[in-house]
Amino acid sequence: MPQRPPPNLQLPPADLEGVGDDTWLDVIHKMEEVYSKLVSDEVELEEKNAQLEQSQQFIFSLLSSMSDVLIACNQDGLIEESNAALCELVGRSEQDLRGTPVPDLLADAQSVQRWQLAMYHAAAHEVAVVELNLRDAHGLPVPVDMSCTPRHNSTGRQVGRVLVGRPLGEIKRAYHQLREAHDALKLAQQQLLHSEKMASLGRLVAGVAHELNNPISFVLGNVHVLQRYGSRLGRYLEALHQLDLPTPVQALRQELRIDALLKDLPSLMEGTLEGAQRTADIVNGLKRFSSASQGEVTQVELNAVVERAIHWVQKGTAPHFEIHWTRGPDCFVSGNAGQLLQVMMNLIQNAADATSANTAADAARAAAPQLWISLVQQDGQVQLRFSDNGPGIAPAHLSHIFDPFFTTKSVGKGTGLGLSISYGLVEQHGGRLAVANLPQGGAEFTLILPRA
Ligand SMILES: Nc1ncnc2c1ncn2[C@@H]1O[C@H](COP(=O)(O)OP(=O)(O)OP(=O)(O)O)[C@@H](O)[C@H]1O
Ligand SMILES: [Mg+2]
């Protein structure tokens, strides 16, 4: 409330004689009315002023918090208002921008042309969207998608335009980040699914391997003993057959086809032994697949592991399998050397199997079997690539390649456990194993491990 002192309401001096008291009282009354109207008008004015200040503050906070750039210009294209985002982008203050023609902020003639077209549309009360290149604080063009809207005063007359836009680079960057996050999420989800599948399969397989382990060991043991007994019995019977045996025994020898039986016995035993051995190998593979223990963890030098793996695989494969490998600087990871050797041997053996042609016709067509191994140390990671010139992996097989028992090899040639065991071992080392087909043909396995 205003603190103005009230007017002096005393009666007038005596020299104003002839004016009656009633008239004076009327005048005083009117003055009082005028004064109280004045006071209430002033209160109203101050309230309106406060409201105006509040809404100005509100508009200012809106404009400054906007990440989009904003320009309000008059009919001649001179800037009247701008926001903090525009000031930051063009590197000029709001005062400096006031009165500047919009085309002064544009980076090229094409943008000026588009701006003129947008002004023309806005003049026809239309909203136009144009891509303008603004010149940033360093003089570089920044593409901005601008919507240009006519601006009117309280009587509805057009007084200028409002331009609002977002730098496209920012949208593109945000989109790129979103895409990367989405891809990472998808990969993590796939890995999680695979790990879960492996974990439940691991439990099942551990049970089966445990149950099979005992019977298969006594089958193996007994077959070995039977082999020995069989050869002894054979020697004994051969000695008997040298003698002059009675006729009924001779007849029984014929009837029971003892000679043919003796001839078949060693190969039957060998077949049984081989089958039992293969089953034992599978059981061992299953046990390794389900084993959760990481074994002894040390600082392992990877170049040395690669070289040992190459040595062991080359010993057992055809000599024409050529491996290209150049030893690099020492590279340490923390893990179990035996398990890492097993992973690499499996990858190299698989490449040797895939690249060696099956038939003579294939051999004539195929290039000499080759494998390239490279080791790259990058940030906190080590990347080992195994790229071969084999037939690659059929697209339909790509998603099953790490599944246990997935194999395209003939019975007895592969268990299909190699890659699934390797995958589990690499995961235990905090790494990743991935596969892809090369554009020029052939498969590429990438083994990523964290550096020690
Ligand atoms: N370098 C490669 N090129 C083409 N196919 C491959 C390659 N490596 C693996 N594969 C495919 O993946 C399958 C699974 O491999 P994995 O090592 O798990 O089992 P395997 O080699 O068949 O049997 P095991 O390893 O038990 O001897 C193979 O049968 C083969 O079809
Ligand atoms: Mg294999």
Detailed description of the structure:
With 452 residues, this protein is of the alpha+beta class. The protein is built from eleven helices and twelve strands. It has a five-stranded antiparallel sheet with strand order 2-1-5-4-3. A hairpin with a 5-residue loop joins β4 (141-152) and β5. α8 (302-316) packs across α9 (337-355). It binds adenosine-5'-triphosphate and magnesium ion (MG). Adenosine-5'-triphosphate is lined by residues 346, 350-351, 354, 388, 390, 393, 401, 406-409, 414-420, 443.
Set out the fold topology.
Elements: H1 21-65, E1 69-74, E2 79-82, H2 84-90, H3 94-97, H4 109-123, E3 128-135, E4 141-152, E5 158-167, H5 168-242, H6 247-255, H7 258-290, E6 298-301, H8 302-316, E7 322-325, E8 332-335, H9 337-355, H10 360-365, E9 370-378, E10 381-388, H11 418-428, E11 432-437, E12 443-450
Parallel strand pairs: 7-9
Antiparallel strand pairs: 1-2, 1-5, 3-4, 4-5, 6-8, 9-10, 10-12, 11-12
Helix pairs in contact: 5-7, 7-11, 8-9, 9-11
The protein binds adenosine-5'-triphosphate (ATP) and magnesium ion.
Strand order across the largest sheet: 2-1-5-4-3
How big a fraction of the residues is strand?
15-25%
Count of helix runs: 11
CATH H-level homologous superfamily name of the domain at 298-450? Histidine kinase-like ATPase, C-terminal domain
Provide the residue-averaged pLDDT.
Answer: 86
Number of strands: 12
For the largest beta-sheet, the strand count, sense and barrel status come to:
5 strands, antiparallel
The top level CATH class name of the domain at 298-450: Alpha Beta
Ligand catalogue: adenosine-5'-triphosphate, magnesium ion
Helix vs. strand class? alpha+beta
The radius of gyration over CA amounts to: 46 Å
CATH topology of the domain at 298-450: Heat Shock Protein 90
Order of helices and strands: HEEHHHEEEHHHEHEEHHEEHEE
Report the CATH architecture of the domain at 298-450. 2-Layer Sandwich
| Separation of the first and last Cα atoms | 76 Å
Shape: elongated
| Helix content bin | 40-55%
List unreliable stretches of 5+ residues: none
